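Field log, afternoon session.

UNIT: design team B
ACTIVITY: writing a sequence onto a fixed backbone
BACKBONE:
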Protein backbone atom coordinates (compact mmCIF):
# COMPACT_ATOMS: atom_id res chain seq x y z
CA UNK A 1 0.00 0.00 0.00
CA UNK A 2 1.40 3.40 -0.98
CA UNK A 3 0.61 6.67 0.67
CA UNK A 4 -0.39 9.34 -1.84
CA UNK A 5 0.58 13.02 -1.84
CA UNK A 6 -2.46 15.08 -0.82
CA UNK A 7 -2.82 18.86 -0.86
CA UNK A 8 -5.39 20.44 1.41
CA UNK A 9 -6.83 23.82 0.36
CA UNK A 10 -9.95 25.96 0.33
CA UNK A 11 -10.70 25.15 -3.31
CA UNK A 12 -9.69 22.85 -6.16
CA UNK A 13 -10.44 25.63 -8.67
CA UNK A 14 -6.75 26.07 -9.63
CA UNK A 15 -6.46 22.36 -10.52
CA UNK A 16 -9.67 22.41 -12.57
CA UNK A 17 -8.71 25.70 -14.25
CA UNK A 18 -5.29 24.37 -15.31
CA UNK A 19 -6.87 21.27 -16.86
CA UNK A 20 -9.47 23.38 -18.70
CA UNK A 21 -6.68 25.54 -20.14
CA UNK A 22 -4.94 22.44 -21.48
CA UNK A 23 -8.17 21.20 -23.06
CA UNK A 24 -8.91 24.66 -24.51
CA UNK A 25 -5.43 24.86 -26.06
CA UNK A 26 -5.89 21.48 -27.74
CA UNK A 27 -9.43 22.40 -28.91
CA UNK A 28 -8.02 25.58 -30.45
CA UNK A 29 -5.34 23.55 -32.25
CA UNK A 30 -8.11 21.35 -33.65
CA UNK A 31 -10.04 24.47 -34.74
CA UNK A 32 -6.93 25.76 -36.55
CA UNK A 33 -6.43 22.36 -38.23
CA UNK A 34 -9.89 22.80 -39.84
CA UNK A 35 -8.48 25.85 -41.62
CA UNK A 36 -9.99 28.19 -39.03
CA UNK A 37 -13.41 27.46 -40.47
CA UNK A 38 -16.24 27.77 -38.01
CA UNK A 39 -17.75 24.45 -37.16
CA UNK A 40 -18.92 22.77 -34.04
CA UNK A 41 -16.91 24.21 -31.16
CA UNK A 42 -18.39 21.67 -28.74
CA UNK A 43 -17.25 18.81 -30.96
CA UNK A 44 -13.68 20.17 -30.88
CA UNK A 45 -13.87 20.67 -27.10
CA UNK A 46 -15.10 17.13 -26.39
CA UNK A 47 -12.58 15.60 -28.81
CA UNK A 48 -9.79 17.59 -27.12
CA UNK A 49 -11.02 16.52 -23.69
CA UNK A 50 -10.94 12.84 -24.73
CA UNK A 51 -7.44 13.30 -26.12
CA UNK A 52 -5.95 15.32 -23.26
CA UNK A 53 -7.34 13.52 -20.21
CA UNK A 54 -8.33 10.08 -19.06
CA UNK A 55 -11.18 9.97 -16.54
CA UNK A 56 -10.86 7.05 -14.15
CA UNK A 57 -13.94 5.24 -12.92
CA UNK A 58 -14.88 6.40 -9.41
CA UNK A 59 -17.27 5.54 -6.63
CA UNK A 60 -18.31 7.95 -3.86
CA UNK A 61 -19.94 6.32 -0.85
CA UNK A 62 -20.89 7.40 2.66
CA UNK A 63 -20.77 5.29 5.78
CA UNK A 64 -20.41 5.99 9.51
CA UNK A 65 -19.98 9.75 9.08
CA UNK A 66 -17.28 9.50 6.43
CA UNK A 67 -17.02 9.60 2.64
CA UNK A 68 -14.96 7.05 0.77
CA UNK A 69 -13.85 7.67 -2.79
CA UNK A 70 -12.55 4.73 -4.83
CA UNK A 71 -10.81 5.47 -8.13
CA UNK A 72 -9.52 2.90 -10.60
CA UNK A 73 -5.95 3.91 -11.43
CA UNK A 74 -4.31 0.73 -12.69
CA UNK A 75 -0.82 1.35 -14.00
CA UNK A 76 -0.47 4.84 -12.49
CA UNK A 77 2.80 5.36 -10.62
CA UNK A 78 2.04 6.49 -7.05
CA UNK A 79 4.86 9.06 -7.33
CA UNK A 80 3.01 10.73 -10.24
CA UNK A 81 -0.37 10.71 -8.51
CA UNK A 82 -1.67 13.79 -6.72
CA UNK A 83 -4.85 14.31 -4.73
CA UNK A 84 -6.17 17.81 -3.95
CA UNK A 85 -8.90 18.06 -1.34
CA UNK A 86 -11.07 21.01 -0.35
CA UNK A 87 -14.00 21.15 2.07
CA UNK A 88 -16.49 20.00 -0.59
CA UNK A 89 -14.38 18.83 -3.52
CA UNK A 90 -11.68 16.36 -4.47
CA UNK A 91 -9.42 16.38 -7.54
CA UNK A 92 -7.34 13.42 -8.69
CA UNK A 93 -4.53 14.14 -11.15
CA UNK A 94 -1.60 12.17 -12.55
CA UNK A 95 0.70 12.21 -15.52
CA UNK A 96 0.53 8.75 -17.04
CA UNK A 97 3.30 7.51 -19.33
CA UNK A 98 3.38 4.57 -21.71
CA UNK A 99 6.28 3.63 -23.94
CA UNK A 100 7.26 0.60 -25.93
CA UNK A 101 10.60 -0.45 -24.48
CA UNK A 102 11.94 -3.09 -26.86
CA UNK A 103 12.55 -1.58 -30.29
CA UNK A 104 13.20 -5.01 -31.80
CA UNK A 105 9.67 -6.20 -31.15
CA UNK A 106 6.69 -5.25 -33.28
CA UNK A 107 3.61 -3.99 -31.42
CA UNK A 108 0.47 -5.07 -33.25
CA UNK A 109 -2.10 -3.48 -30.97
CA UNK A 110 -1.88 -1.10 -28.04
CA UNK A 111 -4.74 0.62 -26.22
CA UNK A 112 -2.47 2.23 -23.62
CA UNK A 113 -1.90 5.93 -23.97
CA UNK A 114 0.16 8.52 -22.22
CA UNK A 115 -1.44 11.66 -20.92
CA UNK A 116 -3.12 13.22 -17.95
CA UNK A 117 -5.45 11.49 -15.56
CA UNK A 118 -8.04 13.88 -14.16
CA UNK A 119 -11.21 13.47 -12.15
CA UNK A 120 -13.04 15.79 -9.78
CA UNK A 121 -15.64 14.72 -7.23
CA UNK A 122 -18.02 16.95 -5.27
CA UNK A 123 -18.84 15.98 -1.68
CA UNK A 124 -22.50 16.59 -0.71
CA UNK A 125 -21.38 17.94 2.70
CA UNK A 126 -18.10 19.49 3.93
CA UNK A 127 -15.29 17.17 5.05
CA UNK A 128 -12.57 17.42 7.68
CA UNK A 129 -9.43 18.12 5.63
CA UNK A 130 -7.05 17.41 8.50
CA UNK A 131 -8.29 13.84 8.95
CA UNK A 132 -8.58 12.91 5.25
CA UNK A 133 -6.28 10.14 3.97
CA UNK A 134 -5.34 8.76 0.55
CA UNK A 135 -3.71 5.42 -0.31
CA UNK A 136 -3.07 3.50 -3.51
CA UNK A 137 -3.16 -0.30 -3.44
CA UNK A 138 -3.27 -2.66 -6.43
CA UNK A 139 -4.32 0.13 -8.79
CA UNK A 140 -7.17 1.35 -6.59
CA UNK A 141 -6.99 4.77 -4.95
CA UNK A 142 -8.91 5.01 -1.68
CA UNK A 143 -9.59 8.43 -0.19
CA UNK A 144 -11.32 8.59 3.18
CA UNK A 145 -12.70 11.92 4.35
CA UNK A 146 -14.68 12.31 7.58
CA UNK A 147 -17.75 14.52 7.25
CA UNK A 148 -17.75 17.67 9.39
CA UNK A 149 -20.48 17.28 12.03
CA UNK A 150 -23.50 19.53 11.46
CA UNK A 151 -22.84 21.51 14.65
CA UNK A 152 -19.28 22.32 13.57
CA UNK A 153 -20.04 23.20 9.96
CA UNK A 154 -20.54 26.85 9.07
CA UNK A 155 -24.12 27.74 8.31
CA UNK A 156 -25.55 30.95 6.98
CA UNK A 157 -29.02 31.81 8.21
CA UNK A 158 -30.88 34.18 5.95
CA UNK A 159 -34.05 35.95 7.04
CA UNK A 160 -36.37 36.67 4.18
CA UNK A 161 -38.70 39.59 4.83
Amino acid sequence: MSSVQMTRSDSILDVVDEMQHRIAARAYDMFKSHGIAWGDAWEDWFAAEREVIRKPAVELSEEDGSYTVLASLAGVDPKRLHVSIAPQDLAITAEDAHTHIAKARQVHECDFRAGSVFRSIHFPRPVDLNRATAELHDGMLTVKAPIVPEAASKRLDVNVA
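LOG NOTE: Residues 2-12+55-146 form a domain with the Immunoglobulin-like fold (CATH 2.60.40.790).
NEXT ACTIVITY: expression trials, pending approval
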